[in-house]
Structure formats: structure tokens, C-alpha cells
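Worked example

This section walks through a single chain of length 107. The input is the sequence exactly as stored; nothing has been trimmed or padded.
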Amino acid sequence: TSEDARALLQTAREGHVERHGAKTFTPGTHLPLEPAAQRLGIGPGSRRYGAAIEVLEEDEGAIERDASARYHLGNTQYLITERGLEMLREGQETNPPGGGQGKEHGR
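Given that input, the structure is written out below as C-alpha cells.
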């Protein structure tokens, strides 16, 4: 769903920022989507995860497959796109810092 997709994108961003800082989170940055899914309680191999990835990749254009990465079946690497950064900025406008993580606020 789109809610799962946005939560996954936000959690992946948070994971990156915790390890590398916010300044390095730019278009083309690798997204730790599987660990983010686990933090959200979504199984990386589940239909729910697959649906969220489909929304982000195909519907929103927020992520793209890393064509340069060599990966094992089921461990596709993704990169954030400019559209993905826009989605995160839009989410910050409606869900300010300290307003909760991954929860809806009057929507």
C-alpha cells in the first residue's frame, strides 16, 4: 500500500542518516530497504513488502534498481531518485519532526 511504501522510504532514510549523515542522502544513494522493512515489522520476502516496493518503483518512481549492483535472487539493491526525495520532503511537511514515526496524523 502507499502507506507502507512511504513508511518504508522514511525508515530507509532514517537508517541511512543514522549511519552516514543527512548530507550524503542524495539522488542515487543506496537505500537499506530490507533492514527498513524489518524495523517496520514487514518481512522482506512478503507480499506486503513486494507491494510497497512496487508502489515506490513503478507507481511513484521514488526508487530505482541499482543496475551496477550484483545481487542474489531476492536481494535487489535500490537507489533513491529525485522523486523519492520529493516524497520525503512532502511527508515532512505533513508530519513534522517529533510528530511520530510511521503513524497517520489526522489524515
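What to look for: The helical segments are 2-20, 33-40, 47-59, 82-94.
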